[in-house]
Amino acid sequence: MINQRSLFFNVDWILILIYLCLCVIGWFNIHAAVYDPLYPGIMDMNTNYGKQLIFIISAVILGAIILLLDSKFFSTFSPVFYGITLLLLIAVLIVGRNVGGNQAWIPIGSFRLQPSEFAKFSTCLLLAHYISSTNLKMHEFKMIGTCVLILLIPTSLIMLQPDTGSALTFTALIFALYREGLSGYVLVIGTILIALFILALVINKFILIGIIICVTILVVMLSRESRKYIQPIAVSVVVSIAFIFCVNFAYQNILQSHQRNRIDVILGKLDDPRGQGYNLNQSKIAIGSGGLWGKGYLQGTQTKYDFVPEQSTDFIFCTVGEEWGFAGSLVVIALYLTMLLRIVNIAERQRSSFSRIYGYGVASILFFHFFINIGMTIGLVPVIGIPLPFLSYGGSSLWSFTILLFILLKLDSNRMGVI
Fold this sequence. Notes:
Pfam families: FTSW_RODA_SPOVE (PF01098). InterPro entries: Cell_cycle_FtsW-rel_CS, FtsW/RodA, RodA/MrdB. This is Cell wall polymerase. The chain is mainly alpha-helical. It has one domain (4-202, 256-413). Helices cover 68% and strands 3% of the residues. The chain has a three-stranded antiparallel β-sheet, with helices on one face. A hairpin with a 2-residue loop joins strand 1 (97-99) and strand 2 (102-108). The longest helix has 33 residues, at 316-348. The protein is globular and about 70 Å long.
């Protein structure tokens, strides 16, 4: 057995240092994003930047408590954590407060708890617990079906809020399943479906179907080998056509109008810089205006005059780009990439399959948030409203990401023991 007192010496302090750097960078940029001349002090508790300091301090304390717990605690009680978050996701649909069209927060005094944030680490824990405790292989239907069910339940509850951005986060966990043996064909099929989804929105569905049929016939005629697989090819074509019709139906009847408009802006089908494209347009102006070195701390005009909506939460990266420029943005991106690579390295060195699976779950969720959040501020992906880990304002977000990361740090500190 490893001496519990020595566990702190086994903690990956480089990863903790990166975590603290991102938290501090986020704090200063929240100060710049919502700066109020009446309350200029960065520690003023009347402001969001003052409250963020409380969130950071409490998050660090929470992380320290996690490091003091027994590693077996997280595996043993993973079903309990999962069950609690499901109850909270149901509760928010009943007693939650509607903010910006989403009923995603439970009011607790002056604080608002967002259960969907905590569902991320609890789902990772249960997924790791189930896969590591069963003798089934990842290619078996029962294994895949159970994993999909574990992901689908919280996703469905979050979609009812509706919070599409948070719900989509759970799809990133497919990379953790792939590491554990899920067929690469699943990723290939997923990529094809994404491509078909985009094409179905850009091209008339009947023209797209005609192109698919013509290409299929051409491939069959030119390739002798393909003729042996006429039946699966025919099935693939039928499924593709059905998927195209489903995309059009979902786009017109399930997605809300503002969600359709955001997608149309990204795809170039809608040019509305003063309306639906306003957020993205102002975001790109703010980031672009920062130049190489930025305008300087508290000198961002786009930020100071509230041109960019949700500056301290979803669009916090705009403040980084405007005030710290390309150089500052590069530093932030480098910190995230270093964190992600280190997490993957930590996951790979685990002796316990539970710890390895959980580690890849952490990497998948953080990568999704990092890529989507920054991508939506520069126009690479639609604006779906998810926070940038450790930088965006909010207690629920910071605490959930802290729990997510520090559980991995705890598991890693005890990797030579038995979990």
